Amino acid sequence: MKNLQMVDLGAQYAEIKPEIDKAVIDVIESSMFINGPAVKSFQSNLEKYLNVKHVIPCANGTDALQVAMMALELKPGDEVITSNFTFAATVEVIGLLGLTPIIVDVDPDTFCVSPEAFEKAITPRTKAVVPVHLFGQCAPMEEIVAIAKKHNIFVVEDNAQAIGSDYTFSDGSKFKAGTIGDFGTTSFFPSKNLGCYGDGGAIFTNSDELAGIARSIVNHGMGKRYYYDRYGVNSRLDSVQAAILDIKLKHLDRYNTSRKSAADYYSEHLSKIDGLQAPKENPNSTHVYHQYTLVVDREIHPGFDQFHLQEAMKAKGIPAMIYYPMPLHIQDAYKSDRFKDEDYPVTNELCKSVFSLPMHSELTTEQQDYIIENVKNYFS
After folding, report:
1. pLDDT by residue (tens digit) across 199-238?
2. Could you tell me if residue 77 is left (phi over 0), alpha (psi between -120 and 50 degrees) or otherwise beta?
3. How many other β-carbons are positioned within 10 Å of the β-carbon of residue 221?
4. What is the spatial distance between Cα 46 and Cα 163, in angstroms, rounded to a whole number?
5. For residue 55, what are the CA distances in angstroms to 39, 58, 205, 211, 370?
6. What pLDDT digit, counting tens, does each position of 99-138 carry?
7. Which of 316, 322, 308, 298 shows the shortest CA–CA distance to 372?
């Protein structure tokens, strides 16, 4: 059996090697490394895939979040509500811009922002909410959008982990993750479902006005060359990465289908273990399984320790990751008197009880059977 990896980028590359190699060589031979035809092609194809008016490529997913908030012209002291159970970048950019992060608890089944916690946290200073589409499925966008509209709050979707997921509203209308709010943002970090071979990101919007501002911001605030309309940043997706992403975009739905099949196979076998909760899917959202994350019931397994499990799996050649081991509200960078530990019962428990198994589109049944056997043995 081939060695196990959380994400097998080598196997994925081997399958599409001729396409990737040609795309990269074409860029090198063209010498158009910045904002070249490859970037424009990828941008156009991603707009079509997402059915969104504007895609603004940028250097990485963190920049995408920052540029979106800059484009909304939020002011220092404005409050932005987001999830406690997420990667740090979501909160990081709020603080970097001098805005005030308001961290709220999550739903115990989907791990996404709780609409009730979101609405409870709104004050007259609240200007935006950043729902995180965590681990591959959408946050409850129908409820979040309704609350945001009621209170005149911008919605910026953090879609770094759910590109390709579909969200269906109660009226039957369907949208790709990241295209529902005022802005959507994503990361093309190599391990993502749609990942490049370096750093990359993008911003999505259906607003012509917001798109124009965001395009200016990612290019030093320029509208016309050497004419600066606003403060900006230098955040561009280079042509080599765009060419790679343009190839991989053609395969994205197949990758996501393979991940879903692998997740279903895991769940079929692992959900039978007493005290182990397989991922639960939001009925309004498809799940593209960026991560396959299990939750241990610590009342049934009172001695459970994530790091002990991680080491036990490592000894068997199985990588297991812990996303995320520590709530944001108690991290040194973000802790504040605004955050009371008792307000985060779900996040606090998840951070002690989750673990994630290898998940990628190249997983074989043989590999999964080996992983499943060892997880069962651990909890027996």
Report:
1. 999 999 999 999 999 999 999 999 888 999 999 999 999 9
2. left
3. 16
4. 11
5. 11, 10, 7, 8, 41
6. 999 999 999 999 999 999 999 999 999 999 999 999 999 9
7. 316
Do 104 and 121 meet the contact criterion of CB atoms below 8 Å apart? yes
d(CA 287, CA 138): 8
| Whether the Cβ atoms of residue 140 and residue 282 lie closer than 8 Å to each other | yes
Q: Which two tokens stand for residue 120?
A: 């409870």
pTM of the model: 0.97
DSSP H/E element including 349: helix 345-353
Q: Which of 173, 135, 180 lies closest to 155 in space, CA to CA?
A: 180
pLDDT for position 223: 87
Q: Is 206 strand, coil or helix?
A: coil
Facing residues of 295 across strands? 277, 354
Residue 260 — pLDDT band, cuts 50, 70, 90? very high
pLDDT at 224: 86
Which CA distances in Å does 35 have to 70, 134, 164?
22, 30, 24
Q: What is the rounded CA–CA span in Å between residue 258 and residue 311?
A: 28
Cα separation, 306 vs 115, whole angstroms? 28
Instruction: Indicate the helix (H) or strand (E) that contains 61.
Output: helix 61-71
Beta-carbon neighbour count of residue 87 at 10 Å?
Answer: 19
